Each structure stands twice: as structure tokens, then as C-alpha cells.
Amino acid sequence: MHHIDVSVEKDIFSVNNKIADENAALLRNNFVRAFDLLGGIGSGKTALIEQLVPLLKDRGFSCAAIAGDVYGDDDFKRVQALGIPAYNVNTGKECHLDAHLVEHALSHLPLSSIDILFIENVGNMVCPTDFALGAEKRIVVVSSTEGDDVVNKHPMMFRGCSIGVLNKIDLAEAVGANLSRMENDMHRYNPDMKVFLTNLKTGQNVIRLVDEILS
Fold first, then answer.
1. 7 CA to centre of own chain
2. Is the backbone of residue 176 left (phi > 0), alpha (psi -120 to 50) or beta?
3. What percent of the chain is predicted at pLDDT more than 90?
4. Cβ(138)–Cβ(36) below 8 Å
5. Cα distance between residue 38 and residue 167, in whole Å
6. What pLDDT, in 10s, does the model give residues 123-160?
7. Does the CA dihedral 200-60-97-129 come out positive or negative?
8. Bridge partners for 33 per DSSP
9. Neighbouring residues of 17: CB distance < 8 A, sequence distance ≥ 6
10. Which residues contact 129 (CB under 8 A, 6 or more apart)?
11. d(CA 60, CA 176)
12. Cβ atoms of residues 205 and 196 within 8 Å
């Protein structure tokens, strides 16, 4: 029975990765740069999109977003309010987006007129790590209010992302979170990760993240 479980799991990842490669090719052919946003519920993924889109628009880039959630359309409505093409994906019982769900969402977006696409994954620090979607880079958002041990508890999340956003730095002192520890843990698990300390309520340091996205 154990061997059957393992082979089925490998098959699931194999099929997912094949579709992810097809998504990546579709995005490349349409000159779309896509970013997969990961992080826990309330970390600031949607707030990050809200801050980035106007700054990117000021530089002449058109944006779009896919909002992934288990249920509901709260994040989708916030993204839609930015006036950009957006598509809502509900996963039902699944705690992550997969490449097939993103493939379906892409068919509903005007890819030929999009420069940058944000794929907001389901709020979860574990499940999304194993499922490639076809994005160019992965951005992980974590907040001080999740506790300064949150990075150390989820090493795989940080190993698989190239950009780290440490959000709600204004609340760190109030919740007793050590920001240096969090940043050091990020670099311990991923020495090459670019880390940005932000307050997404005010947009603090987001401009530096825009430069990194466009680099």
C-alpha cells in the first residue's frame, strides 16, 4: 500500500509540473511576467498587490491578478477594485492552487495586453510549496504578527521562493517579534533570497520591491 501511495503522489506532481511548464510557455509567448504570491492568511498578499499595481502602472506596466482562495471572493473584490483584469479561483477543499486551476484562469485573462500577472495563492504556509504554477518567480509574504518563529517552522516555503516580504514591521514591537531573527532565518534557509521589510498599510519600502520585480 505504501508503494501505491508514493507512485500516485509522484504522478500527481508529474502531471502538475507538465501543466505548469505549459503555463510558463503560454505566459512567455505573450510576454507576461508572472509572480506567485505565497503566505499565510492575513500576511499581506492582497495588500501587496494593492500597493504594487499603482506603482507599476505609473511606470507604464499593465497588471492583472488571479485570486486564489478556498472559498469566497473577498480578495478578488479588493483586486478587482484596482481596475485591472482579475479572475477568482476557489479551490473548495484544497489548500493550494495547482497548475490546472491556473491554466483555466489564464484562459479568462487578456494575456496579450498584460505585462505583469500576480497569482495570489491560497493562504497556507505548507501546501502551496509543492505545486508549481508556471510563474517566473515566487514571492513569500510573512508578517511580524505571525510570530518571529514562523519562518523557522516553515523552511520549505522559504527555500522555494526568491523574494521574501517581511510585513507589518510597525507592529513587531507590540507583538514582541524580533525582525532580525525573522530576516536571519529567511537567509539561513535561502541565502540568495532578497528580503524586503514593509508596512503595506503605508507602502513603506514597496518601491524597492518594484525595482526587484522589474529587474
1. 28
2. left
3. 92
4. yes
5. 13
6. 999 999 999 999 999 999 999 999 999 999 999 999 99
7. negative
8. 116
9. 99, 132
10. 38, 156, 157, 160
11. 40
12. yes
The CATH code that applies to domain 2-214 is: 3.40.50.300
On whether the CB atoms of residues 186 and 166 are closer than 8 A, the answer is yes
Look-up of cell digits 513603506 = 204
- Can you read off the three cell numbers belonging to residue 62? 499593465
First CA to last CA distance, the chain: 48
- Chain centroid, CA 206 distance in Å: 15
Alpha carbons within 13 angstroms on the beta-carbon side of residue 136 total 17
The strand pairing partners of 195, in sequence order, are 164
Say if CB 37 and CB 137 are below 8 A apart: no
**What are the pLDDT digits (tens) for 71-114?**
999 999 999 999 999 999 999 889 999 999 999 999 999 999 99
Is residue 179 helix, strand or coil?
helix
Where does residue 9 rank: exposed (0-12), middle (13-18), buried (19+ CB within 10 A)? exposed
Q: CA–CA separation, 114 vs 32, rounded Å?
A: 6
Q: Which residue has 517566473 as its cell numbers?
A: 136
Q: Side chain identity at 188, as an amino acid letter? A: R
Give dist(CA 51, CA 196) in Å, integer: 14
Name the DSSP letter for residue 93.
T
Q: Which run of H or of E encompasses 9?
A: helix 2-29
160 close to 129: Cβ distance less than 8 angstroms: yes
Mark residue 163 as left, alpha or beta (left: phi above 0; alpha: psi -120 to 50; beta: remaining): beta
